[in-house]
Amino acid sequence: MDEAFDTRWTTPLAVCIVQPRISIGDVDHNLDRAIGWIRKAADDGPLDVVVLPEVFTTGFPYDRLPELSGSSKRVMADIGRLAAELSTHIMFTLVIEDQGRYFNRFMSIGPDGRVETTYDKTHLFSRAGEDRFFTRGEKLVQFEIGGAIIAPLICYELRYPELSRKQVLEGADILVYPAQWPAYRVFQWETLLRARAIENQCYVIGVGGSGSHGTTEMGGHSMVVAPFGDILCSIDQEEGFARTVIGPERLRNIRKRIPALADRRPDLY
Q1: Per-residue pLDDT for the chain (269 aa), expressed as one digit of tens each?
Q2: Is 89 among the domain residues?
Q3: By the 8 A CB rule, do 175 and 202 touch?
Q4: What residues are labeled active site?
Q5: How far apart are the C-alpha atoms of 164 and 151, rounded to whole Å?
Q6: Number of domains forming the structure of the chain
Q7: For residue 241, what is the enclosing H or E element?
Q8: Counting Cβ atoms within 10 Å, is residue 135 exposed (0-12), middle (13-18) or buried (19+)?
Q9: CA 193/CA 47 separation, integer angstroms
Q10: Which domain CATH number covers 130?
């Protein structure tokens, strides 16, 4: 655990989750919808962190990866201008082509409009063929906003508690999961998001898409979960946004009241 936690994160963060309705492969439409929702959210006050769904501009039309990956620079430029205008951090994933290989890449763009962090999805969803089209990432990352340590993980990786535990033991205060989770499994999505928060005594931000992916309806139900497991804000299955404020006191209080992390027995496992 991070021994400097008590002095490192001191200022609360205004967090916004944005759940647009995604039209598969229609980059211009999806980008415009997302930007529109972010602007509506910003009308309610300044934002420190905005999180969008996984591959929010394209979805997963695997046969069009070469074409759609070509839009990534334009998307990053447009989101970068918006992040600079609103002085916020905007997080999402894109389909990225890198030296002839394709990655499902998380990006956080900072208030200067530049990419501040990237993370390539390390666990690919073989059931949907993701492993046949994308190259998996090989390392986990963390980054800091306002003293809070943020660890990005992506969709399917919610099913791997060892990933979130490793990130928290290495200092993460907030786990961020951009996703595309289907409606028929959305009860698992909520259960796992809350479980990751409860077992790690940290904040969890999960953001999914709205709309349909072929014949599969997306589940939406984006949410921000507190370290105790209570939901601070959420969206139903339709598109929209929700805001909340998260701060270090909840983390400190729950970890002092229930010292589950301190009471671990790594000698047994």
Answers
A1: 555 556 799 999 999 999 999 999 999 999 999 999 999 999 999 999 999 999 999 999 998 989 999 999 999 999 999 999 999 999 999 999 999 999 999 999 999 999 999 999 999 999 988 999 999 999 999 999 999 999 999 999 999 999 999 999 999 999 999 999 999 999 999 999 999 999 999 999 999 999 988 889 999 999 999 999 999 999 999 999 999 999 999 999 999 999 999 999 999 99
A2: yes
A3: yes
A4: 54, 121, 155
A5: 8
A6: 1
A7: strand 240-246
A8: middle
A9: 23
A10: 3.60.110.10
Residue ranges making up the domain that contains 191: 13-257
Residue 258 tokens read as 């229930």
DSSP 41: H
Which helix (DSSP H) or strand (DSSP E) does residue 84 occupy? helix 72-86
Threshold 0.90, pTM exceeds = yes
Bridge-based pairing state of the strands 89-98 and 101-109: antiparallel
Residue with tokens 């898409």: 209
Residue 3 lies in a domain: no
d(CA 137, CA 104): 9
The span from the CA of 101 to the CA of 113, in Å, is 26
Task: Give Cβ neighbours of residue 255 (< 8 Å, ≥ 6 apart).
Answer: 201, 227, 261, 262
